[in-house]
């Protein structure tokens, strides 16, 4: 008898999990440089962000918790063994008494299917939340890459304007020294030069800020070099198709699917709370022997009496939580439609303004060229020359700023609708529409 018992004990120990220490990292895991592929296109930046973003790595690890909870939901509760040995101390008995019983809680079996469904919904919600976070990271990567490309395009124009005006300030300073001009004539040129320098410094600051933000998003060190293409290339964009697809957005956007799966899980929580109002029921089998060697074998039951607590508190809480989730889903749905509609309207306005600015730009360039030619033969005064040059560079930057703003809105809309982003086919969508 001792040998089988020892073998059973060893087997049970072999099936147990063992503890292993997991140390925290000692330093930040930031790459010193981007991959050797250069220059990086927008799609390359998105791919690197999805692969290397530190927050996404942490989110993927958190998803493992939902998978573990799904595993736990399929494990039935262990039966309970109860035993007693009562040595004979005094009296007419001849042997020690003993008892042994095996019982199982049946209430956990009643809610088993509902708990499994809720765990599957929760796992699906975790997957949808992770996919939505990937959409956000991909959209942010697009946005930063587009802004960085646009800012770098503005730098040469701003630098050229500053260089021209700095040369004019140097010329007017020489004229002031020789008495060939007055301070009233020279002052506007210096003011325009200082404004151009401030504009160039602002663009440089913006470029460095965007560079640091993109490095952080890609899991790179702040000083890591990033070489991007000169022109931003975005997925095809059709405003009419976007408006037509708004009705199917709840089936395609991960955050909306996550809310639906969370609502389905809460439905199961309400069902479980209602089932839990029934009495606790534990059934088992026991065997006893008294001190006179009389052996009894038979079933036993333990039933809870729902005199005071019929789980009405938990039922009320789960129903209120379900109502809250329903309202949150309706609010998110309305917000989504409003955001897409507002962005499309802004794009229409920006498109009209950009078209007007592009029509005005050739005239500003021609006027600046004529001013350059007139200055070479002293046929234009300093103030008029500076005004025409400044107008040309202002119009150049206006066009680039409107182009960048239009691209920003396009990226925002494409992030909202998931254009060119990971699809949702792998999610358990059927769980959300039961």
UniProtKB/TrEMBL annotation:
PROSITE patterns, sorted: PROKAR_LIPOPROTEIN
Organism whose genome encodes this protein: Sphingomonas morindae
Protein name: TolC family protein
Gene3D superfamilies cross-referenced by the UniProt entry: Outer membrane efflux proteins (OEP)
Signal peptide residues on this chain, from the entry's feature table: none
InterPro entries xref list: MdtP/NodT-like, OMP_efflux
Similarity remark: Belongs to the outer membrane factor (OMF) (TC 1.B.17) family.
């Amino acid at each position: 008898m001792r040998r089988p018992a020892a073998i059973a004990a060893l087997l049970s120990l072999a099936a147990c999990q063992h503890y292993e220490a997991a140390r925290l990292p000692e330093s930040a895991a930031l790459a010193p440089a981007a991959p050797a592929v250069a220059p990086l296109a927008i799609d390359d930046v998105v791919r690197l962000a999805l692969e290397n973003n530190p927050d996404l790595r942490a989110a993927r690890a958190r998803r493992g918790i939902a998978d573990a909870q799904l595993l736990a939901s399929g494990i039935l509760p262990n039966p309970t063994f109860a035993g007693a040995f009562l040595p004979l101390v005094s009296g007419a008995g001849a042997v020690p008494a003993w008892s042994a019983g095996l019982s199982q809680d049946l209430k956990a079996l009643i809610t088993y299917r509902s708990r499994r469904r809720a765990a599957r919904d929760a796992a699906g919600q975790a997957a949808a939340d992770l996919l939505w976070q990937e959409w956000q990271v991909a959209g942010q990567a697009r946005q930063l890459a587009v802004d960085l490309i646009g800012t770098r395009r503005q730098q040469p124009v701003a630098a050229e304007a500053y260089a021209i005006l700095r040369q004019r300030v140097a010329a007017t300073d020489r004229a002031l020294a020789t008495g060939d001009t007055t301070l009233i004539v020279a002052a506007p040129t210096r003011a325009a030069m200082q404004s151009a320098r401030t504009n160039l410094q602002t663009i440089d600051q913006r470029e460095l800020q965007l560079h640091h933000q993109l490095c952080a998003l890609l899991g790179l060190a702040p000083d890591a070099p990033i070489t991007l293409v000169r022109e931003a290339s975005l997925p095809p964009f059709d405003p009419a198709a976007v408006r037509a697809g708004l009705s199917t957005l709840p089936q395609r956007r991960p955050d909306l699917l996550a809310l639906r799966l969370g609502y389905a899980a809460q439905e199961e929580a309400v069902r479980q709370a209602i089932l839990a109002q029934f009495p606790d029921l534990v059934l088992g089998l026991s065997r006893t022997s008294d001190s006179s060697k009389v052996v009894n074998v038979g079933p036993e039951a333990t039933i809870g009496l729902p005199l005071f607590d019929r789980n009405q508190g938990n039922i009320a809480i789960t129903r209120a939580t379900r109502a809250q989730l329903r309202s949150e889903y309706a609010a998110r749905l309305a917000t989504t439609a409003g955001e897409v509609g507002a962005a499309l309207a802004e794009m229409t306005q920006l498109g009209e303004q950009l078209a007007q600015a592009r029509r005005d730009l050739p005239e500003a360039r021609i006027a600046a060229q004529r001013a350059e030619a007139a200055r070479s033969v002293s046929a234009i005064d300093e103030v008029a020359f500076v005004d025409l040059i400044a107008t040309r560079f202002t119009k150049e930057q206006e066009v680039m700023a409107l182009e960048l703003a239009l691209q920003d809105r396009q990226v925002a809309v494409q992030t909202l609708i998931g254009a060119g982003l990971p699809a949702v086919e792998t999610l358990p969508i059927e769980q959300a529409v039961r």
